[in-house]
């Protein structure tokens, strides 16, 4: 009973894993790390690397004097890169956390409008542009900055504005570099990958397959919570008067709902890959399917929003859709952190789970 | 603010029945912790045998307490980002008094009284200003808020008063949050935790110390004072999982922070997370608990040497019981006696039906 009540306080969920040396729960697929790597991590990282490189190429062509077709390729390249990153963003542990890579690609939430301020500042000066963004402010380095440069005020004149175009290219190159780093950090033989697919008592950070399963549960839960609490709810506001579409990510490019839907789809594919939908435990599979039911509805509902994000959060019908999606996401997260984790044999701790 | 006064008073009356006969001082000790009991959040005064002496219902999850021992009262704080605090008599005398910070502040869950019991300090978030403050409340006038001090950092968590009775030490955890984003950490890339010392008579920051830049994601959260006057802290690492920076440190005024990693296997097992810090009754043993690691680790306050560890799943609340002995509570209902010299003894074994103890246990 208490569990049902306190689970509503879970935020970035943390799981207490069984200590190594104990029996491994047989509800967890024996090859969980391999399954996730093969069916999720490797393909989504490859796609992110490919789309971000393509985007760099398209920007390079525009900056060298391209016109309408090249601009169209940039727009497509941007939405493809966002879509690929939506899946990558679910893997918010290990390599994506190291070196602030997540924030460097996606500095969010940006409660004080730092990105806008810094990007406008950089575009307005005549100082030479930094050739490498890696040691610059994270707000200048990633996709929200590129969203402004390509789709914000002045974005239409990208091809004629050499400074703006070169900065866009530098951001795209930076994102493509990080995509390459992510693939390298997960490559065969790296210690992180070895620990993930063959956890052992003397390996960091995963000492058992239960810890790997816990990481996957945590990643999925964190994504759902982040997408709901940091991407949708602040823009939705508690009332229509408090709606602020410009507090949503990627509203300038109109990609907000596609991006969140992509993250939700990523969670679905991740739990599927982990064997939580079609794995060794029918009980777990039942909860996994329950999650998928909620998540599919959330995704479809968000994709049904056709109004531009800037206005959609204030439109009655779309507010209803967005609100429904957040409720379905919350429901899926509760199933994940509650019943599904319990059925997997992951023991949740009141303090360890969500300490302070 | 809803407080079930009837329940409170009924239990307060029951608390008047004390055990008879000669009891060890250890068993006369009283402790205060927040917990979840059969679906209800509450603060509870217990004795060293784990028996409830007083229960105060809370409207939501509590965290830690400020204790004014000479006047037998305490303040229970909401867990961050909560906005309630409740002052009450630990003997159940009179009615509890609820108060809140201003609308643009929320509590971080920790606070403390001045020795004369006149002022209460609470760590708070000025979330629009993105800075930490210590709220100052007049405990002689219904806990009216009379001002605040900047903590010189973001995310102040625990605050303690030094032995001089006028200097506060605040642990700036460095993590930016905003209630609109619940508990999402907004500034991991730019965290800058620190320890700040504030003179409560002037409000001046009299000293501030940081960690080395490469440890900027080591969130300093919990504090205790050893018998030699040094501040000990426990930290939570927000960086990569496969790095294991030291989590325990000591600071002596005017010096740089010292960090104590302890044995490698112990550090690994702590899982980059310490949830509570306390000293034993002598002030010479520092105890650090890690609910994620399921471990309490003991340190010699003189040398910083690690004295050993004891396992308790989801154990976090820890408070002095006697010399070299502490009482620890867990999120799975356990209450244990623990310390560096003796095996852990169950006062109450782990029991899923028992109250689930929250992060902190305080000795009255």
From TrEMBL, chain A:
Keyword Iron found: no
Signal peptide segment: 1-21
Pfam families: Peptidase_M75 (PF09375)
Cross-referenced InterPro entries: Imelysin-like, Imelysin-like_IPPA, Imelysin_sf
Keyword field: Signal
Imelysin-like domain ranges (all copies): 42-271
Gene3D superfamilies named among the record's database cross-references: M75 peptidase, HXXE motif
Compartment annotation: Cell envelope
Name assigned to this protein: Imelysin family protein
Automatic annotation (TrEMBL), chain B:
Highest rank taxon of the organism: Bacteria
Pfam families listed in its UniProt record: DUF1513
Chain positions covered by the region annotation Disordered: 334-364
Cross-referenced SUPFAM superfamilies: YVTN repeat-like/Quinoprotein amine dehydrogenase
The name this protein goes by in its record: DUF1513 domain-containing protein
Naturally occurring in which organism (per UniProt): Nitratireductor kimnyeongensis
């Amino acid at each position: 009973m208490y569990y049902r009540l306190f689970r509503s306080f879970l935020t970035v969920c943390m799981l207490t894993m069984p200590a190594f040396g104990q029996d491994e729960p047989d509800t967890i697929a024996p090859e969980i790390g391999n399954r996730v790597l093969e069916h999720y991590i490797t393909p989504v990282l490859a796609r992110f690397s490919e789309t971000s490189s393509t985007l760099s190429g398209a920007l390079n062509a525009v900056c060298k004097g391209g016109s309408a077709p090249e601009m169209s390729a940039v727009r497509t390249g941007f939405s493809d890169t966002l879509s690929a990153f939506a899946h990558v963003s679910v893997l918010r542990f290990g390599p994506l956390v190291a070196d602030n890579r997540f924030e460097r690609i996606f500095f969010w939430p940006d409660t004080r409008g730092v990105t806008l301020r810094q990007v406008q500042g950089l575009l307005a000066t005549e100082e030479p542009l930094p050739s490498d963004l890696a040691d610059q402010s994270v707000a200048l380095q990633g996709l929200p900055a590129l969203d402004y440069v390509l789709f914000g005020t002045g974005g239409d004149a990208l091809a004629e504005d050499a400074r703006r175009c070169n900065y866009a290219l530098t951001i795209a190159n930076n994102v493509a570099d990080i995509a390459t780093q992510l693939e390298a950090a997960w490559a065969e033989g790296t210690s992180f990958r070895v620990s993930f697919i063959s956890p052992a008592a003397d390996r960091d950070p995963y000492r058992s397959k239960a810890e790997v399963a816990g990481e996957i549960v945590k990643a999925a839960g964190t994504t759902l919570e982040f997408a709901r609490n940091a991407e949708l709810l602040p823009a939705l506001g508690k009332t229509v008067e408090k709606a602020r579409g410009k507090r949503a990510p990627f509203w300038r490019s109109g990609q907000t709902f596609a991006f969140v839907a992509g993250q939700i789809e990523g969670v679905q594919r991740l739990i599927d890959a982990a064997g939580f939908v079609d794995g060794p435990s029918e009980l777990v599979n039942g909860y996994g399917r329950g999650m998928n039911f909620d998540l599919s509805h959330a995704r479809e509902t968000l994709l049904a929003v056709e109004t531009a994000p800037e206005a959609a959060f204030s439109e009655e019908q779309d507010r209803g859709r967005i609100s429904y999606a957040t409720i379905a996401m919350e429901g899926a997260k509760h199933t994940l952190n509650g019943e599904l984790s319990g059925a997997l044999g992951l023991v949740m701790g009141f303090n360890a789970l969500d300490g302070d | 603010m809803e407080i079930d006064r009837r329940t409170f008073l009924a239990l307060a009356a029951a608390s008047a029945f004390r055990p008879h006969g000669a009891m060890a001082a250890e068993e006369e000790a009283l402790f205060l912790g927040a917990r979840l009991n059969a679906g209800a959040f509450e603060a509870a005064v217990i004795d060293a045998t784990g028996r409830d002496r007083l229960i105060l219902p809370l409207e939501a999850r509590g965290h830690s307490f400020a204790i004014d021992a000479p006047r037998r009262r305490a303040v229970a704080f909401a867990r961050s980002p909560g906005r309630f605090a409740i002052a009450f008599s630990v003997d159940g005398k009179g009615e509890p008094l609820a108060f809140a910070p201003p609308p643009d502040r929320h509590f971080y869950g920790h606070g403390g009284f001045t020795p004369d019991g006149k002022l209460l300090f609470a760590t708070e978030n000025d979330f629009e200003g993105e800075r930490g403050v210590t709220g100052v409340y007049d405990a002689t006038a219904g806990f009216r808020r009379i001002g605040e001090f900047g903590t010189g950092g973001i995310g102040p968590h625990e605050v303690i008063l030094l032995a001089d009775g006028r200097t506060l030490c605040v642990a700036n955890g460095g993590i930016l949050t905003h209630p609109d984003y619940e508990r999402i950490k907004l500034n991991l890339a730019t965290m800058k935790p620190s320890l700040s010392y504030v003179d409560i008579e002037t409000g001046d920051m009299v000293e501030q110390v940081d960690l080395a830049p490469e440890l900027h994601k080591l969130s300093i959260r919990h504090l205790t004072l050893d018998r030699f006057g040094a501040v000990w802290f426990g930290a939570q690492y927000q960086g990569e999982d496969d790095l294991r920076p030291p989590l325990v440190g000591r600071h002596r005024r005017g010096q740089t922070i010292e960090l104590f990693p302890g044995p490698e296997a112990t550090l690994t097992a702590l899982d980059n997370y310490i949830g509570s810090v306390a000293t034993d009754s002598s002030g010479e043993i520092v105890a650090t608990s890690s609910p994620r690691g399921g471990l309490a680790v003991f340190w010699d306050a003189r040398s910083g040497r690690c004295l050993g560890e004891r396992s308790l799943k989801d154990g976090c609340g820890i408070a002095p019981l006697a010399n070299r002995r502490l009482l620890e509570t867990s999120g799975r209902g356990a209450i244990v006696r623990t310390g560096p010299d003796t095996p852990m003894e169950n006062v109450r074994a782990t029991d899923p039906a028992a109250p689930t103890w929250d992060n902190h246990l305080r000795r009255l």
